[in-house]
Write a structure and sequence with these properties.
By secondary structure, the protein is mainly β. Helices cover 0% and strands 49% of the residues.
Amino acid sequence: QVQLVESGGGLVQAGGSLRLSCAASGRTFSTYAVAWFRQAPGNEREFVAAVSWNSGNTYYADSVKGRFTISRVNALNTVYLQMNSLKPEDTAVYYCAASPSRVALTTTRMYADWGQGTQVTVSS
């Protein structure tokens, strides 16, 4: 089990960029797969991106491919989500989640540890 705290959300104009951070506690963080999910009002939580413990296995939702990049620096117990070319439909609360898996996972049910979320709002 790890503790996760997201940060970096805010208000940005369409076409702009934001970098989200997921700071984790725990010595075993480097062995965990980590993912970003997002949830807009009235919508189900959806997968955004995931990365394996060694960054050798990554997945992206089709809606963010080419625009978002997930990365991690295990020495800092931190995972990032670089979001470029933001669109109004990217507006949501973004959550990071961790799982003791050696490979990246893309479904909500596979993650037990979640952060509290950070709001991203993209204006048109």
